[in-house]
Amino acid sequence: MVWNEDPFDIFRDFERVLRDLNRNFLPEPKYRPFGHKYFGAIRPALIDLVDKGTHFELTAELPGVKKEDINLEIFPDRVYIRARRKEKIEEREKTHFYSETQYAEFRRVVPLPEKVIPSKAKAEYKNGILSLILPKEKPSLGKKGHKVKIS
To answer: Is the Cβ–Cβ distance between 102 and 35 less than 8 Å?
Structure first.
């Protein structure tokens, strides 16, 4: 006997059956929060961390979040970003009234490869992008090594 089937096929079949059942008994929500298919979705903030020698530049994507809804904490060895978004949708027509409140949360803990000085950090939020400048405690020499004289 030749075994050609994927051992996880049974789980995929089960998942498909559950999706079909849900589709038949539970209606799809009319609006989907932030392109995600579940309400109250939690996802990590998408980030870039770049070493500039004397400091790190960190950018995080937080689409649709208001500046006052961002909680930013900087520690010497990590950055904690948390943002919440609440959206209320109402549709009033002659025959019906539809109201839905959607929530989403973004959060991310970014470990830093070198220690930074939290009190000297600078942050800016514009067009859904959070930008941070994190000065290093002891700036590295970068890719260049330090030449040592041999005695």
So the answer is: no
